Amino acid sequence: MLTEDEARGLVLRELTWPARAINLDLAISRVEPVSFGWVFYWCARQDIGRPAGQRPSLGGNGPFLVDRENERLIRTATSKLVPQQIADYERRLRREAHARNVAAKHAVQQ
Question: Is 36:90 a contact under the CB 8 Å cutoff?
């Protein structure tokens, strides 16, 4: 099971390559706890605290979902609202749990 600091480390490692490719210092700008772990929002470090209305240095930087239980790091799309992507992932977790339960029940019956 991941701690928030360990999850932060996963995200920062994931940002290493894009930071080099675009020659910007990338940083985590906000962390939001959710039922399964955290949502890590990120941007160019120079954009942290930028006044509303100013154009950011970087676009297309969808946040990461990090699952504390199975240590998944999921890159989200910018074309879909974050709350919808969180709900989609929560549904996925429920489907996976159901499939495990069915498989376990089937194994016991054999």
Answer: yes
- For tokens 């199975």, the residue is 70
Instruction: Show the tokens assigned to 75.
Output: 């890159």
Task: Specify whether the CB–CB gap between 8 and 31 falls below 8 A.
Answer: yes
pLDDT at 50: 79
Give the residues across from 32 on adjacent strands: 39
Burial class of residue 100 in the structure, from the number of CB atoms within 10 Å of its CB (0-12 exposed, 13-18 middle, 19+ buried): exposed
CA-to-CA distance for 95 and 10, rounded, in angstroms?
Answer: 25
Tokens at 7, concatenated: 């999850």
Write out pLDDT tens, residues 65-88. 999 999 999 999 888 999 999 999
